[in-house]
Queue: 2 jobs
Job 1
Amino acid sequence: MTWRSGDVALWSVAAVMAAASVCGVAPVAAQFLEKPTRPQVEPPTGPVRQVIFKNCISCHGIDDYAFSALDRAGWTALIENKHKDLNVPVSNEDRDLVLDWVAARFGPASKPFPRAYVPPQITTFFTDPEAQTLLGSACTSCHGLDRVNEKRYSPDRWRVITVDMRERGAKVTDEELERLVEWLGRVRGTNPNQ
Ligand code: HEC
Ligand code: HEC
């Protein structure tokens, strides 16, 4: 699964770069992501961390957990169903720790990360006032802009956060989202001069 999507992405980036070099236009790598944005999940702390590292990461990472928002019974059914033909031996005690954690972290009140957000290609970029206007209209109903201003992230991380915020209720179109992500990566990025 992973190697296949990696392959596809590599091929399409290479094709875009070949096309761009013919026209003499420098490609901006971040604008040519043609695969769905994937969630990023911070590993938990405490005993459940060891359980997950021991039992759950040999076949796939934990990011995919963010695609679901379920109660404990829902998580039990999903995990059983996904692994019914696989050998995933877990003690009852470890299983309970994992289920408690996923049901608390990705419970019914949380918002599942969308599986199919593909960043559109953008050709115009926000000026500072344009970005501030959108932040003011779309990002201040639940928390202050200090949440945004004090953070420094890569564009990929900003995209994951902004897609998550939209699932929670922030009103932005795909184009606005991507322009905001580009601006945030540029102005609230990880470059030490920012
Ligand atoms: C032996 C390999 C293997 C191990 C070990 C494993 N998984 Fe999986 N898991 C899979 C595969 C394969 C799928 C995808 C099944 C499908 O979608 O058809 C999957 C899917 C999932 C999904 C659904 C992801 C989605 O896209 O919604 C979750 C959640 C999950 N696993 C959690 C866990 C947890 C928690 C553990 C540890 C208790 C674990 N997995 C251990 C192979 C494994
Ligand atoms: C519908 C309510 C809501 C709206 C609208 C909203 N947010 Fe949030 N935001 C939240 C909540 C709730 C959290 C806390 C999430 C958590 O701690 O898990 C949060 C946290 C954050 C964080 C901190 C997350 C981190 O990992 O550092 C950032 C940055 C952020 N929001 C940016 C934005 C941006 C940008 C917008 C506008 C596009 C926005 N928010 C709009 C509800 C909202």
Job 2
Amino acid sequence: MIINVTMMIHLPTLAGRAYRCHCSSPVFFRNSECLTCGTPLGYDPTLARLIPLMPGLSDGAWVLWQAVPAGVQAQEYLRCANLATPAACNWLVPVTDGQAPQLLCQACRLNRTIPDLNDAAHPDNGVLWGRIELAKRRLFSSLLALGLPVASITQDPERGIAFDLLRSPDGGPPVMTGHKGGVITLNVQEADDAVREAVRSAMREPYRTLLGHFRHEIGHYYWGRLVSGTDWMTGFHALFGDETQDYAACLQKNYTQGPPAQWWLHYVSAYASTHPWEDWAECWAHYLHMRDTIDTAVSLGIANHNSYSAHLEFTPFTLDALYQPDHPNAKHFLDFLNDWTRLTTLLNEMSRSMGQPDFYPFVLPREVVAKLHFIHLLVASSSWLPTDLQGTEAVQEVIAQQTDSQPMGTQAASQAQMQSQSGF
Ligand SMILES: [Zn+2]
Ligand SMILES: [Zn+2]
Ligand SMILES: [Zn+2]
């Protein structure tokens, strides 16, 4: 059937990706200052916004640019101590009365080990670390906007998260990227494009990125945190299988025999076929790919721009493909999913026009659609939103008034509102 490409917001927007400085210039998630007017910029992960800054009253503190109307107390921030390092972290650390200020932001605080920046034998450690931290911030901006639990191992030794960003010893065994007990290990050389591309090609993978690694590994973490030992296990077993089968033997079998015939009817990737835990982590990563990319498309106004309309051959998924077709919000997820398929069909053609690899080199089979719906229901039920957002709407309105732009930053609050109303 022929369907006109029209993007609609079927799920709440999370971390909107279109930001503007107070001078109205577009600014981007990674920016620490406006390239037009020089105003410092910082990302507030609670608001899920990149905001223009001016010095606050306290020493070294910053506040939102000229934006303190009567009745709204200015939130003071420190800049993350990693701003002036190769990590170039532009995140903000809120200053809370009566509490000792944190020096690192919520994302940087999760690092347990970072590359040695004084290693004369590996002067590229800083550059590689910077790329890793940018991908990590992108990951956590989504997780925080989704309202998922994010705590460091220092804060929560039992259930927290830590990152070991390790470089393999020269001539020694390579560091294996993976997750165990809340600790995510990343081989730093994955940030080297030539190294990563060589591995991708050798492994015959269609897609390999730092962000993909992080989204996959954090999926393992949330399985242990949100699924294991809960009522969700029944659904997990029905969709993903028995996770008690020997993990090492499964990996070995995949290594020697390859994936099962016609794996693409059941899995989102060949690697997902190795073990239920890997199937879960792969689907979790795709769920985050989808949420963030749709957010970006909606934030940038693709939905409303006629020039993006197109006619594409597309057979939409139907409700019976979902995990719970009778769920009261099933139609919202179905529409989101079909938007995703339309968008990626379009973007794949755009990529091919430039001779680039496909934007999204995957096909979602029906079985994976059910798995994604299961993950969506889990994420929605695990979110701490809509609490903890009081007051943010007032501040965001101020930003919107100043920037004379499309409404900036009501997404987080409206997301909370929508979630509380509809039970996403
Ligand atoms: Zn500016
Ligand atoms: Zn930081
Ligand atoms: Zn894995």
